[in-house]
Batch of 2 targets.
Target 1
Amino acid sequence: MSDTNSPKVLVVDDEPTVCRSCEKILVREGYEVKVAYSGKQAIAILEQEPIDIVFTDLKMADMGGMELLETLRFRFPDIVPVVITGYATIASAVETMKMGAFNYLPKPFTPEEMAAVAQKAWEKRRSILEARALAAGTISSEFCGIVGKSPKIQEIFRMIRKVAPTSSTVLIVGETGTGKE
């Protein structure tokens, strides 16, 4: 991964040793890493910088991981969250997934496990970005910004697709000022 295109990861944990370990693993894998020691500090970073993936602990003093997950889900929905926790239970895993966590990584974990989860999270993030770009590109280029879901406009889109590959001249008629050009 090149520096300009490196995925940006935020590690949120109130234990500095965990943050440093995660940072070391992720930097070695080619990620650009920011560290926050609290949920509130994480939100401040998220408001200032574009982040692709968030690894967050569940149990922190000022703001727990569940509250941070909820904030991510509503304020930063395109960020891919991963939960890391030393208190892994089936119930907490299910609850975090319901709150929007992409994955759940119980502590202690190996560097290989973290790298694999980060890679999958980055693939998920890329698919989100590609889908958004594709949707925006389709609307703006295929039909010059024409947007609509009604049966009549869908019929027009079908006609455009049918005529577009031909070299035939097409006459578009309509009232003055309706944007026929």
Note: DSSP finds six helices and five strands in the chain.
Target 2
Amino acid sequence: MMNFDVELLPPFIDLLLKRLDSTKKNAFAELLSHLSSSLQVDKLRPTRRGKIRHSLDDVVGEVFEKLTQFVVLGGETLEGDGASQESFITPPSDSPHSLGLFEVLLSIALLSLETCPLNVSNAIKQRFAQTQENVDILYQLFSEALKFKIYCERNMNTIISVAQQCLWSPKPDARKFGAKLFKELFVAIPKRREMTMRAMLTHAVQSDMESEAVLIELTTLIDESPEAVEPFIGLISEYFFVLERMSVDNVKRLFRAVFRLYAARPSTMSHKDNLITMIPLLLRSADNVQPIFGILAVLLRMETG
């Protein structure tokens, strides 16, 4: 399947779908399994020497659009074949099947369907949130998926919901992955950075574990790409007014992140001045906790210069 013109891939998938035996149980799930093993999405390359009519991004998007269109309009529906698709996406724990790029892209496509039933949606999200795969491998798979920018931009809400589901997990590795996915999504899809940052920051004032995970990745993001975060310093600064909803350790993480951004991007000076103005107010507060926040701000200001 990898040795022909990639622009022929969508019509080829269309042909396979039309020839599915509608009388055979689990036929669609079996097709998905075959595609997963034979269609190496990350190795697709243009094969034409002349003008390429469609980018790889377009081709991949069309392939998964055809698969989801079949789910909605074809001989099988998610409601009728939910169990077989669920078993493909979430195989038994003793199964040798592991996640690949095809499964990640298919999962995004299925979750984006308005008609995706709750059991299938939950199965997909739990596959990520309770994954047995190494978190770095899972992160790499989503990093590969995010290279198909047009496809992922169309499915932003779905990818954000996966990141959120993972951050809600009791498993540390899943929370780590969810936070890293937010960071990668922010970098990969520039047009939707505000949307990503807003969704990511909402977890800063949720559970301590969620907050810790996203603030660690926010700090890493600032260290690696301060120029990308700079336009959102105002949005980040809004969280100075809800510090009481964070633990002391997470307030410390937030202050460290913003002071690093101030140091890296001088144009954020006005926001730094606003925080410095807040410090005396925090120190003089009658609240039992806010003076501690003020002391933390002073110490971290000294630490970052």
Note: Residues 231-305 form one domain.
